[in-house]
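Researcher: If only I could read backbone structure tokens as easily as an amino acid sequence. Walk me, if you will, through where the backbone shape changes along the chain. I have put the entry right below:
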Amino acid sequence: MDISASDRELITVMRQYFAAKSELESLKEHLEAARQAAGEAIGMFYDPRQNLAHAADLQRSHRLRGEMASLMKRAEAWGKTASADDRQDMSEAEPEEWQSFEKRADSFFGS
């Protein structure tokens, strides 16, 4: 089975997405454990302006969320393109008896 350049790009994007997701999950666990150990309120702890000790990790978690959203948009765009290509391929290869009545009528009556 041949894999197209587009498919390889999707695989790369999804690997990056899941790597970012894994890192974010680990970071969230670390931050939540630190918050609970400190006994701090959620709002205070997760505000990087008020929690200088964990500000870098909090900012990293925000960047990872943004990266994941961007990667997912790329994957969605790939999916839309692939779906459109599949629909085009299907319509080109569609036997006459499977075509809609409107298509057959238009071609017969010349509309």
Summary: The chain has a mean pLDDT of 85. Residues 55-93 form the longest helix (39 residues). Residues 101 and 107 are 10 Å apart (CA to CA). Helices lie at 5-38, 42-45, 55-93, 101-109.
